[in-house]
Amino acid sequence: FDIFDKTLLEVYQKARADGFTNLFINNEATALGAAKFPAGSLLRINKASDTATAFIYRPYGSSYVLKNKQAAGGDGRTGNDPTCNGPAPSSYVTSLEDLVATYKGATCLYSQATLAGTNFKSTDPINAQGASTLSIGYTVGSVNVNGTPTAFYTGNKLIRLSFAGTGTNPVTYSACDQQFSTGNTHNCTAIGNGSYTIEALSDGSRVMTLSNPPAQTAAQTYNRVFVERNGVVYYGSKDKPGIRNEARLNTTASNALMDQLQIPKFGPDDVLALTVASYQGTWDVRDPAQDPQFAFNVGTRLVISPTGTLSCFDNFSGNNTNCTGFSLNPANGAFSFTNNNGGAAVVTGTANFTAGTLSGTYVPQGQAPGSFIGQRR
After folding, report:
1. Strand partners for 258
2. Coil/strand/helix, residue 257
3. What is the pLDDT of residues 237-276, one digit of tens each?
4. How, if at all, do strands 74-75 and 108-110 pair?
5. Do residues 154 and 181 make contact, with C-beta atoms less than 8 angstroms apart?
6. pLDDT digits over 61-90, tens only?
7. In whole angstroms, what is the distance from residue 171 CA to residue 196 CA?
C-alpha cells in the first residue's frame, strides 16, 4: 500500500486495529504526533500460516540445565541433612536420561520463614521443589517478584514439570507458589500429566519433547523442549504452528519512522558495526582440560558492562578477583587485562561475537603461562 502523505499515527493505529500487531510503539500519539510519511513510503501486510517449526536453543551457559543435591529431597529443618542443606548447583545435566533421573519432583522441607524486611511468613513447613522441577517457561500472573511484597508469596503460579508419575515416560505438570524477592519455587500442586519422547537428530543432537501441556499454558507461543548436545542439556523451545499477521515498512517508510522516534536509521546494505556494548554480558572461563559440566563452579566469571568495563569473579567463591587495565577491540574481539587474584596475571585473548566463545592465555608472575577457553552465558 502507498502510504505517502498519511500520518505515521494513522497508519500505525490502522495496522494494529486490523490485527497486524508485530509493530508496537509506546505512547504512540505523543511519539508520532502529526508527522507524515514521505513520497516512496510503502506498507506491506502479510499473513503467513506456519506448517512446521524448528527446535530452538541458545548455546550459552545460561541455557544449561543445572542440578544440585536438593533435587533428591529430604528434611532440611536440621543441619544434619546432607541433601537439602547441600551446596548450590555444582554440575550440569549431561544427558536426557540424566535429566529424567534428576528431576523427580521431590520436596525439601524447611522451617517456616519470614520474608526479609516484612512480617509475612511462609507456610509451615516450607515445601521447596525448585531444585527438583523444571521450568516450562510460563507463569500465571504478572506480579513483579521484586516489587513491594503484599504477602510471603507473589500470588503468581509458576508452571513446572517433573518426571514423576506412572506409565511409560511419565511427566507431571505442577503449579507452584513463587516467593517474593527471591522467586523461589514452593508448594507445587499437580495440575496434569503427560509423557516425553526423545528423538535423535541428524546433527548428532537429541531432543526431548513433551506431550499434553497443561491448559494453563494455552496462551504460551511455544512448547518447552530439552536439547542434548555434546554432553550438555539445554533448555529449548519449539514455536507452536499458527498464523502470523505482520505489517512491514519499506526502507523509506522505516527511516521516516526511525527519524520520528530518534532511532538510528538503517539500510539493507549496512554492515554490522560492533562496539564494546556488543560484548556485554557474562562469560564463563575455564581451563581447556576441565570438564565443561563443572565450569559453573570453577574458573573465572567475566562480566563486561555496556560501557566496556570489566568485573571478574571466582566462580567457586563468588568473590571479586580485582581485574584491572581492561581493553577491548570491538572490531576483532581482542582483549587484555590483569587478574589480581593471588598475584597479578596478564591475560590476553579473543572473544568471538558470533559464536559467543573466547580463548586466550594468561601469564602469572613467576609461574608458567596457561591457556583458557570460555563461552557467553
Report:
1. none
2. helix
3. 999 998 889 999 999 999 999 999 998 887 778 888 899 9
4. parallel
5. no
6. 678 898 888 888 999 887 777 788 866 656
7. 7
- Can you read off the three cell numbers belonging to residue 181? 524477592
Grouping H, G, I as helix, E, B as strand and the rest as coil, residue 171 is strand
Which grid cell sits at 185? 519455587
Cell 500465571 sits on residue: 140
Q: Residue 109: its pLDDT value, please?
A: 94
| Sign of the CA dihedral running 340, 341, 343, 344 | negative
SS3 per-residue string spanning 144-168: CCCCCCCCCEEEEEEEEEECCCCCC
CA atoms of 127 and 84, how far apart (whole Å): 11
Residues whose CB is less than 8 angstroms from the CB of residue 64 and which lie 6 or more positions away in sequence, other chains included: 92, 93, 232, 233, 234, 235, 296
Residue 5 CA, distance from chain mean position: 42
Beta strands 357-364; 66-67: pairing state: unpaired
State the pLDDT at residue 33. Answer: 96
d(CA 41, CA 32): 16
Judge contact between 304 and 279, C-beta under 8 A.
yes
What's the pLDDT at 271? 80
Output b/e per residue, 266-276; b: 16+ Cβ within 10 A: eeeeeeeeeeb
Q: Which residues contact 84 (CB under 8 A, 6 or more apart)?
A: 69, 70, 73, 74, 75, 76, 108, 109, 110, 128
Residue length, the chain? 377
